[in-house]
Amino acid sequence: xxxxxxxxxxxxxxxxxxxxxxxxxxxxxxxxxxxxxxxxxxxxxxxxxxxxxxxxxxxxxxxxxxxxxxxxxxxxxxxxxxxxxxxxxxxxxxxxxxxxxxxxxxxxxxxxxxxxxxxxxxxxxxxxxxxxxxxxxxxxxxxxxxxxxxxxxxxxxxxxxxxxxxxxxxxxxxxxxxxxxxxxxxxxxxxxxxxxxxxxxxxxxxxx
Length: 208
Description:
Layout: E1 31-36, H1 40-56, E2 64-69, H2 75-85, E3 90-98, H3 104-121, E4 126-134, H4 137-142, H5 151-181
Parallel strand pairs: 1-2, 1-3, 3-4
């Protein structure tokens, strides 16, 4: 089986020490795609790329759900609600912000990146950031499947790998905890209950 293409050239490389990394396998896992509708002529191509990546990695179509929001600013909040639901192993955040004549571009991009980054840093669920920030429409289209690959596909592969890595780490931590708890425990010291002295009333009286 050929190794799936990734942007990381060191994936699967040999190492002298222990290496912890996820496999590019989505089989049996559930993924959410959180996509903005703004600039949908670009975002839809990103969504198609993400679904293609998940399908190629083994995810079933019924295990991939799409959540829509108006624009990139709303992606972090929606992604948070999806993550808190606990129904998915990974979230792919997709959007496209194209620079205009005002600073609004920078505000939207920065807030979207900050919000998704905060959720990612918690490490509770695999989250991938696939929001394009481009100066022109041509740049956005190039990164949505024409000349420069498809960033939706790339983001989905990040979610797949991180979901598998988190699952592996969880199994290793559980196994380590189980082995630690399996050590013979020191038996507790039995509790000695003091017995109250009783007065013997049925003994024969001592004769004088």
